[in-house]
Amino acid sequence: MPEHVYQKVELTGSSSLGIQQAIENAVAKAGETIQNMRWFEVVETRGHIENGKVAHWQVTIKVGYTLPH
Amino acid sequence: MPEHVYQKVELTGSSSLGIQQAIENAVAKAGETIQNMRWFEVVETRGHIENGKVAHWQVTIKVGYTLPH
Amino acid sequence: MPEHVYQKVELTGSSSLGIQQAIENAVAKAGETIQNMRWFEVVETRGHIENGKVAHWQVTIKVGYTLPH
Amino acid sequence: MPEHVYQKVELTGSSSLGIQQAIENAVAKAGETIQNMRWFEVVETRGHIENGKVAHWQVTIKVGYTLPH
Amino acid sequence: MPEHVYQKVELTGSSSLGIQQAIENAVAKAGETIQNMRWFEVVETRGHIENGKVAHWQVTIKVGYTLPH
Amino acid sequence: MPEHVYQKVELTGSSSLGIQQAIENAVAKAGETIQNMRWFEVVETRGHIENGKVAHWQVTIKVGYTLPH
Amino acid sequence: MPEHVYQKVELTGSSSLGIQQAIENAVAKAGETIQNMRWFEVVETRGHIENGKVAHWQVTIKVGYTLPH
Amino acid sequence: MPEHVYQKVELTGSSSLGIQQAIENAVAKAGETIQNMRWFEVVETRGHIENGKVAHWQVTIKVGYTLPH
Amino acid sequence: MPEHVYQKVELTGSSSLGIQQAIENAVAKAGETIQNMRWFEVVETRGHIENGKVAHWQVTIKVGYTLPH
Amino acid sequence: MPEHVYQKVELTGSSSLGIQQAIENAVAKAGETIQNMRWFEVVETRGHIENGKVAHWQVTIKVGYTLPH
Amino acid sequence: MPEHVYQKVELTGSSSLGIQQAIENAVAKAGETIQNMRWFEVVETRGHIENGKVAHWQVTIKVGYTLPH
Amino acid sequence: MPEHVYQKVELTGSSSLGIQQAIENAVAKAGETIQNMRWFEVVETRGHIENGKVAHWQVTIKVGYTLPH
Would you call H61 helix, strand, or coil by DSSP? Predict the structure, then answer.
């Protein structure tokens, strides 16, 4: 872990399946344009309710990635 | 999403199964008396430990619902 | 719940399986040296990303336990 | 201000006009069922964007009111 | 502590006697309409000053209670 | 609201006219390069004082927008 | 912006007209005794309710000013 | 409560007797130089331990007072 | 106060008598195993309600103590 | 540490040299008018960037001092 | 400071030399792609420990820059 | 980074030399009894003032270390 610089982006993933799938959806989408993703941090967990049930889980994360030298 | 007013209530659901089930238990119980629930926000995640293992997951959420016109 | 005194320790569990397993790993490890664990509180949820996917879930918790009389 | 007890409820008002109107909408709606409202505190200010413009202002407040003796 | 659901309400008690009496006033008032109160959490401690002295202690708490099955 | 992923950017708008205009300036500027903006959240409200009067209102917001499939 | 030192004071302005007027009232009052005010930061927005309507807007700000060399 | 402006100062009172006496000491000291004190808010409660016992209670408060017209 | 290093532990004391007694119970219990305790900081104040009354006060504190040279 | 009362003021020091010099500048300036300063607490660390480099370090601190008996 | 709009990015710089160098590394790296950087705010200071010593200082900052007209 | 569990301890280091030396003092002292320290996080930065100058820098950190398998 030498003199690297990392950048963080904030994303909200959603999924009808659950909290972890919402996070993995956000990470997968970020990976389409970002190289060298290293970690994520959960910022907030929410969800959408329809007909009295949880319809979508929505998790906001920050994703950190290494900037190229 | 016109000039609606929403109210939030704070609930703690518990479950021996896990975090999501604790949330769904709280939403289901709230739905017995509240119409038009729209979203929830996780406030805190805790749990009860018995005999060195997680016995109950306890998740505090806020549930937002539309007030009738 | 009479005049007990509780102590809290802060732990980070990790797991490739998910959030709940990371918490249970931390509780199990703590139970090797701590008697009378009573509850936990989630402080932070993070994770390690490798090859564009979540490789490890890392959950920091506080574990509260009863101090002996 | 003698030995009163106050209760707080959390509401989100929305308005296409602006922040203050969103608050006033929430207070007016709360006043339909709550007597003796005394103060509010702003918790969060958000808004909905449509076609690149702010379409609705959404302000979450807590409203405090005196409980009857 | 099986699969219960708890609700929380936010109250401000006041008392000329002190912090604990303000909390107990709020709990007693809540008990007039709420069954099965289980715990409280202090949110904020304030007070009113008159003639250079503390005239009323005002403590805001959240009270948690079990929802009926 | 199916399996979307949203990104958030943090912006500070300024205006000599007021709080709402500062927000709208930030949203308008963001809209020059961002498609599909959906919501904003106010993070901080500040201002610049000149000659004893508020000269500019400065509002920091986060803007959330849908990432393309 | 050389080696200046700034001091901050915390003020609450009130106004029946609105949020911005409450801030401007606080800044104007501070300017009666403070030279070289440079910026303000909003700390909290509250209000007083009378007869079911917002009667006064109350905004707490911090005002920063340059200390003389 | 017309168009008043209030200022807040931050004080730490200490007392060997307890939390409330520490607050009252701070309010009494502030009253030697400040007119028209109106309210206080507790910011932090700490204490000094000597020989395994609480020797002094230290409570940091903000005191709000009306600025003269 | 030369080049000392201090450690903090987090404890929750409980008491049926009140807030200060709960803190003193926690400090007394910590003193059974910790030398050179220097200060405490209140982290959270809660309580247990039975039969509509406060049955136990529960105060979480951090206790700081000097590590031996 | 008998029954003293302490006051805190909030200051921002700046320096082109670094974080500690910015703090020391603020303390030195405060010492021109305040007797008996006892401690400081860092509130925020920021800086000004010019031509792609840090030009000034700006550190906001609270300074606590003993009020005279 | 006319009607500008600023954007903020969140970066983590690391350095074996110290806190300031970690910040300057992050600012320098950001300057490779961002024009018109104006200020930074420290979000978090951490570090990596190897063989019982601080091996790398890691400072997370937000960098604000002017968006072009 | 397989299925490790980490523990955190909270320490305050002090130094007359500066912020970094205070952190390094705390890490060095912790290393006398803790194996496998991995990282630290700064929690709070304070200092002691004597004769109008900073006499000691005091930095509170959390140190994370790997628990043995």
Answer: strand
Q: Flag whether residue H55 sits within 8 Å of chain I, measured between CB atoms.
A: no
Spatial separation of the C-alpha atoms in residues K44 and D36, rounded to whole Å? 44
Query: What are the tokens at L2?
Result: 């397989």
> Do the chains contact at F63 and D49, CB–CB below 8 Å?
yes
A19–B contact, CB cutoff 8 A: yes
CA angle E20, E22, E27 (to 5 degrees): 95
Q: What is the pLDDT of residue D2?
A: 58
Contact D18, F23 (CB under 8 A): no
Interface of B with E in 24-43 (CB under 8 A): 25-26, 29-30
The pTM is what? 0.96
Cα I7 from Cα C9, distance rounded (Å): 13
CA angle L29, L35, L37 (to 5 degrees): 75
Measure the CA–CA gap between E54 and E51, rounded to whole angstroms.
8
C-alpha–C-alpha distance, residues D42 and K52, integer Å: 47
The answer to whether the CB of I29 falls within 8 A of the CB of I19 is no
E15 interfaces chain D, CB cutoff of 8 Å: yes
Task: Classify residue G11 by burial, with Cβ atoms within 10 Å: 0-12, 13-18, 19+.
Answer: buried
Segment I16-25, tens digit of pLDDT: 999 999 999 9
Question: Which residues of chain B lie closer than 8 angstroms to A53, CB-CB?
Answer: 24, 27-28, 31
CB of H18 within 8 Å of a chain I CB? The answer is yes
Mean pLDDT of L1-11: 88
Please check whether residue I4 touches L, CB under 8 A. Answer: yes
Q: Touch between chain K and chain F (3+ CB pairs, < 8 Å)?
A: yes
Q: Do the beta carbons of residue F46 and residue K41 sit within 8 Å?
A: no
**CB contacts, 8 Å: L19 with chain J:** 19-20
Q: Quote the ipTM score.
A: 0.96
Contacts 24+ apart (CB under 8 A), E47-51: E47/H23, E47/H39, E47/H40, E48/D1, E48/E14, E48/H38, E48/H39, E49/H27, E49/H37, E49/H38, E49/H39, E49/H40, E49/H63
CA geometry: angle E42, E48, E53, nearest 5 deg: 120
Q: Do E12 and D62 touch (CB under 8 A)?
A: no
